[in-house]
Amino acid sequence: MGATPQVESAARGAKSSSAIQFLKSGPKKLLINGKWVPAKSGKTFETINPANEEVLALIAEGDKEDINDAVKAARKAYEEGKWPNMNPHQRTRLLLKIADLIEKHGEELAELETLDNGKTIFESKNIDIPIAAEVFRYYAGWATKIYGETNPSEPSIFNFTLREAVGVCGQIIPWNFPLLMASWKIAPALACGNVVVLKPAEQTPLTALRLGELLLEAGIPDGVVNVVTGFGPTAGGALAAHPDVDKVAFTGSGEVGKEILRASAGNLKRVSLELGGKSPNIIFPDADAPAAVFGSMMGIFMTQGQVCCAGSRVFVHESMYDQFTDQLSQMAQGLTLGDPFDPNTRMGPLVSKEQHDRVLGYLKAGKDEGAKAKVGGEAGAMEKGYFVKPTVFVDVKNTMKIAREEIFGPVAAAIPFKDENDAVLQGNDTSYGLAAAVWTKDISRALTVARRLKAGTVWINCYGMLDPISPFGGYKQSGFGRELGKHALELYTQVKSVFAKL
After folding, report:
1. pTM of the prediction?
2. N or C end of the chain, less CB within 10 A?
3. Is residue 210 within 8 Å of 128, Cβ to Cβ?
4. Do residues 281 and 304 touch, judged by C-beta distance below 8 A?
5. Smallest Cα–Cα separation from 392: which of 346, 345, 460, 324?
């Protein structure tokens, strides 16, 4: 149990009266079977504003018993409730209503996201909340378009397939894009007729809980979406291992992803994993230099570098290495680090003290191995908050720790390359394969390199573009399965063959 939060102080900078009221409304509960209930243990934990290290709210600490209740509620809703038999046009209308409610409460949701995560209000308002609404709107359209097939057969047989929901889906989301990642998982699951038990990241539970309220307001039936807050090893582990969960979806670290895969073996539940990255961002000599510098800056410093597909390895042709890294460093130095509610701020704090300490450890490791911080390389000079200065390391070798391991912070490792083949070989020399980028005016080179790079997404002359219509996921240890686009329907449906003797 934590102390009662002093909301006005912890949430200073927030202007939405709805956001303040949500924080003031007492300890946050679990959403199970359409009701808000405390954890069975009675325990709560604190969620912290990373900009000032103050307590925003007390959150119910769900564990195995609460997960059991949520899964039971979801199973009952799936087997006995009206959701799986609902007319798909009704599901479409409900998903559209959820999208409208997200937009209607956009200011409140954006401020809660910034308070809980530390990302700038500019990002929350202009990226996270609008795209979350668009994801629900996109999958609303799919609810009426999930088709089976009729198969050629002999005249005495009618053979066809049905594409059916998987059932109870456990969904475990990360802290870097809390509402957005919830939408990526909940929307396609609901469109296909599934039911959900959602476990938000313990660092950032607020928008998932507020989304739960909006889902009930939209008219989602009891038990169809349940939200259980708690810690990874207890609540998350129980969800991944639960024998009555049919499918688990996880976004987060590779280490935890492997644990979830092992835990899922008990009942051979279906698993999709979107894990880490160490994405190569390759700059050729004929690139539009100003665009490449700006794109590289956005690719690594957006959300303080806490992005799975961040362009953390910047491969620059040796002929322009010094000039390019100078320009990137100057741009990084110009980023305003500070209060995420200040409209002029372009970088807020990291999400937690644990993450802050982790990133500072990598800054030390980079220097110890001989890399040079051309800019940054240290904590922000604020009295409170988990701030780290935007950092560009030069003299980096692809074998260094800062080039091999996912830092998940505002740290770019600039690495020189000799030619196209060298860029591809170094770019692919990683255990990850989530994303990559190529900057060049030569379209033949761009497409050739894009084909050779082992990554689930490749951007050409841009970085970080995402759209609900386009699939997202990784190669190698960046996971398997594709979220977004029509490919996400494969994660949440299964195919049944039916033979009818005529």
Report:
1. 0.96
2. C
3. no
4. no
5. 324
Count CB atoms within 10 A of the CB of residue 151. 13
Q: Report the candidate in 296, 342, 333 with the shortest Cα–Cα distance to residue 439.
A: 296
pLDDT tens per residue, range 194-240: 999 999 999 999 999 999 999 999 999 999 999 999 999 999 999 99
**Strand extents, DSSP E, 187-235:** 195-199, 225-227
Q: Which domains does the chain have, with CATH numbers?
A: 63-275+480-497 (3.40.605.10), 280-468 (3.40.309.10)
- DSSP label at residue 335: S
Question: Which amino acids are annotated catalytic?
Answer: 274, 308
Which of 175, 169, 171 shows the shortest CA–CA distance to 59?
A: 175
Closest CA to 182 of 117, 233, 246, 118: 117
Q: What is the CA radius of gyration of the chain?
A: 23
- The answer to whether 230 touches 63, Cβ cutoff 8 Å, is yes
What pLDDT score was predicted for residue 4? 64
Pairing relation of β-strands 35-37 and 30-32?
antiparallel
Distance in angstroms (rounded) separating the CA atoms of residues 337 and 19: 24
Are the C-beta atoms of residues 408 and 386 closer than 8 Å to each other? no
